[in-house]
Amino acid sequence: MKSMTIYFVAGEASADNHGASLIRSLRELAPNLQFIGRGGPQMREVAGEQFTNWIGEAAVLGLWEVIRKYGYFREQFHQTLNEIQENKPAAVVLIDYPGFNLRLARALRKESPQQKVIYNKR
What we know:
Elements: E1 5-10, H1 13-29, E2 34-39, H2 41-47, E3 51-53, H3 55-58, H4 63-68, H5 70-87, E4 91-95, H6 98-111, E5 117-120
Parallel strand pairs: 1-2, 1-4, 2-3, 4-5
Helix pairs in contact: 1-2, 5-6
C-alpha cells in the first residue's frame, strides 16, 4: 500500500501535546502514514526528523509580541505554504493557533481548493 502524508501545524505547547497524541493514534490505525509539518518537541519525537520544531519561536503572547515578530511569522507562513504545495499531503491538520492557522486555511482554500484542511480548535 502506498504511504500517504499528512501535514500538521501546531504553534504552542498544548497543541504540540494534542498533535503528538493524534499522530500516535493515526499511526496505530494506519502504520503507512507519513507525518510532516511544524510543531514542538513532542510531535517531532513521534513524527520524526522531517518535522520542524518551531514552538520556541512561534509561541507568543499578546499583540505586541506578534507585531515584534511579524517578519518571522510572515516568513514561516510562506515556507509552510510552499512545503504543503511541494509535498501535496492527503490532508493538512491545523491545531488551534488561530492567528496563523486560520490565515493558512484561507490561503490553502484559495490556492488549492481540493486540499483537505482540518482545523482543530481545542
